[in-house]
Design goal:
heterodimer, A: about 260 residues, mainly alpha, MetI-like fold, 2 domains, globular, B: about 270 residues, alpha/beta, Rossmann fold, six-stranded mixed sheet, four-stranded antiparallel sheet, binds adenosine-5'-diphosphate, binds magnesium ion
Amino acid sequence: MMSSSRSSLAFWLRLVLVAFIFAALEIYGRFYADPAFMSPPSGIFRAFVERILPEPKIIEALFLCVLQIAAAYGLSILFGTLTGLLVGATSFSRSAFFPIVLLLFAIPQVSLLPLVILFFGLGPAAKIAFGFSHGVFPIIMNVVAGMRDVKELHLRAARSMGASRSETIRHVILPHAVPSLFTGLRLGMTMTLLGVILAELYVSTGGVGYYTRLFAENYNPAPLFALIGCLAVIAILFNELVRLAEKRLTPGLRRSAALTNLVKE
Amino acid sequence: MSESAISIRNVSQRYGDAGAPDSVLALDDISLEVRKGEFVCLLGPSGCGKSTLLNVIGGLFKPTSGTCHVAGRLVDGSPHPDKIAFVFQESTLFPWYSIIENFRIALKFQGIPQSEWDDRAMQALKAVGMSSFASHYPDQLSVGMRQRVNMARGICVETDILLMDEPFAALDEQTRMVLGEDLSQLLAATGKTIVFVTHSLAEAVFLSDRIVVMSARPGKIKTIIDVNEAHPRSPDFMLEPRFSELRNECYALLRDEIRSTMAAQRDPQSAGA
Ligand SMILES: Nc1ncnc2c1ncn2[C@@H]1O[C@H](COP(=O)(O)OP(=O)(O)O)[C@@H](O)[C@H]1O
Ligand SMILES: [Mg+2]
């Protein structure tokens, strides 16, 4: 009871704070700000309805952006998980290959963006490649870490029960790595978004990046913020997707918190 | 003369290469016979090699020298899950599996046919009064409940020998005593051979037929104390003068060991002196 009334209080408090921020932005944007740099939320919303929605090219660009993110993320998951499993499989493979992963991860990738563009061209391929190269590392690292941190006691117990090497991997090491995998997937999602959008902003001949530049250079903040808002919504939706998958697939997270409290002595 | 279930002969275990600065002689020439159906406690200061000895018996690794036979079979660094089950601390339950799944996986690893898994699991859970928690996850249970389940998991595989490594270490004193009583009840019926590691004096006296008191590093057997008291034991046993006499005897034996360990930790030079 106590905790549910507290969490609903937290919800209302959060709502009030957000409403307050919007109101403050509205007042500032309407009466004080330079309209070349800022627009009140109502103006942004109007721009979304009048300048973004009716523009098939922009909708198409947003759709393409979603596809690029999905493709880059899909590749990141596939290669990240596989590479992570191979590198993390034994302490030998880990000590042999993990330093390479760490080295690659340490390179500030933005400095390679011009090369990526040269190599993959101005189209979606470059964005997918750059999103992938950002997204894959957190996934590899977390899969490896998850497999490494398996408890000695669990391994010893499995061995004493007569588990074979493959049974140990399947029933002990992999399930242990699942929460860590999802940490990697969440980070990987954030990084993939970053990679794709960075590449978009750097060079784009008709994508979201093209329009953000267009609006910014024309001192047209309302549609610019509307477009950025669309990107934010896309990012939130992708993150939510990962969170839902995590909730469904992590054993032990499946049950409800209420039940947990009930049973604890 | 009763049949020997576990026969340990001249077992030594050294971690690291002899001569290396960080090399540790954990067990030094240990010989011990454990009779069938006997409850033996290994008691000793922390770090004296109790777990090491238990792991050698369980075949988790091969000792540096010496041999260990279980039911006449040489244990040579590979586990015999059909003969020997381990019970470690309660945190050994796999947190990603529900209680019933934890049992299934133990039975699967051991090679028991799938058709028997759930019957055996429920029977073992009933025996410890936890059958209504079969579909819970370990972290939904209290530490005491988890250890009850963990004990049941060790028992459900129905091996002749049970090796328990400080199973109650994470529990508070009261829960520990209650679970100790349960264990005594549970095992009186089964006739299992048990080697139980503990550093609790009361636990050792309450549960054991024989207490093997070990000395600090390098681990040697210092004395073996007989506790002549039939199983299952009731809590009244703890009130008898004999109980405190035995407990005090163990304490006197251990006190010197613990003092010398502490001295060694304070000043490595004086350890050999
Ligand atoms: N895998 C290992 N590698 C090196 N030293 C170890 C290892 N396991 C145990 N030891 C050392 O051997 C000694 C005995 O350990 P252990 O058998 O765990 O003692 P106990 O269970 O009595 O506390 C300790 O000094 C410990 O540091
Ligand atoms: Mg130990």
